[in-house]
Amino acid sequence: MSVAAQKETREFQTEVRQLLDLMIHSLYSNREIFLRELISNASDAADKLRFQALQDENLLEGDGELAIHVSYDKDARTLTVRDNGVGMNRDEVQENLGTIARSGTREFLKQLSGDQAKDSRLIGQFGVGFYSAFIVADHVTVLTRKAGAPAVEGVRWESAGDGQYVIETVERPQRGTEVILQLKEDADEFLDGYRLRQIIRTYSDHIDLPIRMPEEAHGDEEQDKEPGEETVNKANALWMRPKNEISDEQYIEFYKHVAHDFEEPLCWMHNKVEGNQSYTSLLYIPRRAPFDLWDRDTGHGVKLYVKRVFIMDDADQLMPRYLRFVRGVIDSDDLPLNVSREILQHNRQIDRIRAASVKRVLDQLEKLADKEPERYADFWKTFGRVLKEGPAEDFGNRERIAGLLRFASTHSDQPDETVSLKDYIGRMKDGQEAIYYVTADSFNAARNSPHLEVFRKHGIEVLLLGDPVDEWAVSHLQEFDGKRLVSAAKGELDLEKLGASEEDKASQEQAEEALKPLVERLQKALGDKVEAVRISRRLTDSPACLVVGEHEFALSMQRMLKAAGHPFPSGKPSLEVNPDHVLVERLRNLDDEARVEEWAHVLYDQALLMEGGQLEDPAAFVQRVNSLLARE
Ligand code: ADP
Ligand code: MG
Question: Would you state the pLDDT for residue 298?
Answer without folding.
Answer: 57
